Amino acid sequence: DAKTTQPPSMDCAEGRAANLPCNHSTISGNEYVYWYRQIHSQGPQYIIHGLKNNETNEMASLIITEDRKSSTLILPHATLRDTAVYYCIVRGGHGSGNTGKLIFGQGTTLQVKP
Amino acid sequence: DGGITQSPKYLFRKEGQNVTLSCEQNLNHDAMYWYRQDPGQGLRLIYYSQIVNDFQKGDIAEGYSVSREKKESFPLTVTSAQKNPTAFYLCASSSLQGLPGAFFGQGTRLTVV
C-alpha cells in the first residue's frame, strides 16, 4: 500500500482557493487517490477520488500529475466551514494485490481565516 | 436512508472491564474497518474485515477483538488487556473495490476511569 506525505498545516483566506498538496511517489498503477476530511470530533467525510484524470465534484477538484506521483485537492472558494483536517490516501481495490487496508496518515490541518 | 451507525456516542467504563462498541451498516458493503483516534492524532487502523467470518489485524490490534458474523455488523471489543483504552473509536465501511470511498460512522468516545 503506497504511503502519502502531506504538509501538517496550511492557512487560507475565506473566499480564496485552498490548494492542498499530497505526495504519493510509490503509487502503483491500480491505486486510486482518495481525499477525506474530518471536522473536529466527527467521522471523516469522503470528498473525491481519482485514478489518472483530473476530477471535479460539487465539493472540490482533484488534480493528479501525469506521473501520478502527486496530487492537489482544490477547494475553489474556501469558507470557514471548510476548516478541518484533510487526509490524502492511496488504495487499490480488492484482488489487485492490495491488502484491503485503508491507512490514514496525519493529514493537513486547513485553517480558513476570515 | 443508507448509512453506518455507531453506538453509543459516549461510553464510560471502569478500568479492567471489557466493553463492546457497536457498528452497523446498511450499505451492503463487504469491507468494514475499526480505527482509533487519540487527541490531535490521525486515525490508526485496529482491525478490518473484507468478508463475513474473516478479519485481519491492523496496526494496533493488541488488546482488541472483533467478530464479523453478519455482513452488516462489525462489533469491536476493547478488552482489559488494552493498556490505554480511552480514545475516540471510528468504524467505516466500503465496497471491496473501495469505490467511491469509505463511509464513516460518527464515532464512539470511550472513557475508562
Describe this structure in words.
The complex is a heterodimer of chains A (114) and B (113). Helix content of chain A is 0%, strand content 46%. Chain A is globular, with a radius of gyration of 14 Å. The relative contact order of chain A is 0.34. In chain A, the strands form two sheets. Chain A has a five-stranded mixed β-sheet, with no helix packed on it. Chain A has a four-stranded antiparallel β-sheet with strand order 2-7-6-5, with no helix packed on it. Chain A is mainly β and 114 residues long. Chain A has no helices and nine strands. Chain B is 0% helix and 50% strand. Chain B has strands spanning 4-7, 10-13, 19-25, 31-37, 43-51, 54-57, 64-66, 76-78, 87-94, 103-104, 108-112. Chain B has 113 residues and is mostly beta strands. Chain A binds chain B through residues 32, 34, 36, 41-46, 49, 85, 87, 91-95, 99-107, and chain B through 30-31, 33, 35, 41-45, 48, 50, 56, 58-59, 88, 90, 92, 94, 96-107, 109.
